[in-house]
Design brief:
- It is built from 25 helices and 19 strands.
- The protein is α+β, with helices and mostly antiparallel strands and 618 residues long.
- The protein has three domains: 219 residues, Glutamine Phosphoribosylpyrophosphate, subunit 1, domain 1 (4-Layer Sandwich); 185 residues, HUPs (Rossmann fold), CATH 3.40.50; 32 residues, no CATH class.
- The protein starts with a strand and ends with a helix.
Length: 618
Amino acid sequence: MCGIAGFVGAGTATDLKAMADAIAHRGPDGEGFFADQHLPVFLASRRLAVVDLPGGTQPMWDSAGDICVVFNGEIYNHRVLRKELEALGHKFLSDHSDTEVLVYGYKAWGQGLFVRLNGMFGLAIYDRHRKTLVLGRDRFGEKPLFYGTKPGVLAFASEITALRKHPAYAAASPAKLSLMKFFAHGFFPGEHTPYEQIAKLPAGHMMIVNAATGAREIKSYWTFGIDPNHPAGDAGDWAAELELRLSKAVASRLESDVPLGIFLSGGVDSSAVLSFASDLRPAASIETFSIGFREKSYDESQYAAQVASLIGSKHRLEICDLEAAQGSLPALLSRMDEPLGDPSLLPTSLLCAFARKHVTVALSGDGGDELFAGYDPFKMIERAELYDRFMPRPVHQAVRMMAARLPLSDTNMSLDFIANRGLAGLKRRPALRNPVWLAPLQPDEITDLFHTPVSEEELYSEVIAAWDASRAENAVDRTLEFYTRFYLTDDILVKTDRASMHVSLEARAPFLDNDLVDYVRRLPWQAKLRGNIAGGYTTKWILKRALARRLPQDILTRKKRGFGIPLSSWLRHWTPPAHQVPLVDDAVMRARWEMHKGRKRDDRRALWCWLALAYGLT
């Protein structure tokens, strides 16, 4: 695991060093540099040594000095690929470095390398013979990769902060449309970042750069989509296959030459990861970590303790409270690099810092909810369709007004919070329901905040395009695609990457294994979301069936809470930031804060987004 940076075009070795120093937290164990002054091409790496500690130094070259790689991530099928490459005649110098597999893999397969990789990565490959630089990002975007769009100099880095150490991007200005989209989603969707002329390389994409001319091309090599070709067999066969593939996914992510542990919430996904890990290692040798809250409606620590006791792991618990949260918040948000409107960033960061005291690698349950329809909005789909069909718009507006008058509650997933959020998405076309349910602010509120008219179509353009282009034939499958392609990639994985890497911890997600995902996306939606309006719904049905012999029923069937925090209550005790957010009418947000403190409205999501920008934009 590392951080990478570099550029093609104007710049100096001093600029490159500054870029690398800005991501030293991603790789505290070493640094490496390469400069081809004639083209010019500059590459840098900061290394967190996890696999093949002596043999994985970067930049790494092939024996002929033609191909150079700097790489952030892990390739879980590197041993299989190494055998294929050795059969083709390639000679390896390292014992088991996954970076060297990238070097010779590109030499053998060129751009075809990317579809063969099962792992997480943001990487740069320099082909000195062809004068080509290739940037690539993994299928789901577990690892970040940003680049500058100015003509004449292409700079790239694992974090925006590092990219802005290059003189061409040091004065990057905030991007209004991107900030508006941030308040519409709670994250920066697709290629958007907070700044003009700085973009994200999308997940599952590569960029090919002609180092001599500066010409660049972006290509997609993989996009998540539901496959209508269902696997053979029945539910029993599907559950057995899932168990086998998940077992292999966990096994491949247990490889480490440094201490490794597991994040444990007591939910289905993290409990499954621990269960499979205990098949492969003595349970007592596995360290598990969880975060608890003093506010009972948010606390799941008893479930994590139950699973740890059942399986026999060495379990550790850290309590997150108001005092600890308030003290760490400004520093946390200021180092986020890419502001995030997800308040669970706070406990995730505390969890990562806690785990890093004991291990260097941690496995998580990320991806399970998105792949198996684990969120409550999946239960709303059929209801929303019926509501839209039979509820007249004037009556809908009256219902919304009544919901707005419900007594405010600070408990997790309270009635007022669910009702107001759910009703906001109803009476909208299907493509917009999911993002609106998640939205910190509605379009008219965003217009007021920025004093700039903006339409739903513009705010949610990426989501609408993906919904309309989907091959899925039903709303459940299209909703699965939304959560996987947007919420997972641009929110959940951003949160996990920044929270973990800021304390030099590597986080791995077995549920995002290629072979597992390729099977899950072929399963019919009825295997993931089981039931109907009359009898109720079961989320993750097929996954729970696959785990039935491993985990107790009370863990498999308990109500999902999510990794939330008592933000609504905490905000009433916090002081709003003194400095202003660029392009935003701060008076509007300060008025919202006072309304929130006075319990006249619940603005927790919008206020968190404002905090994230206030501390995160420099």
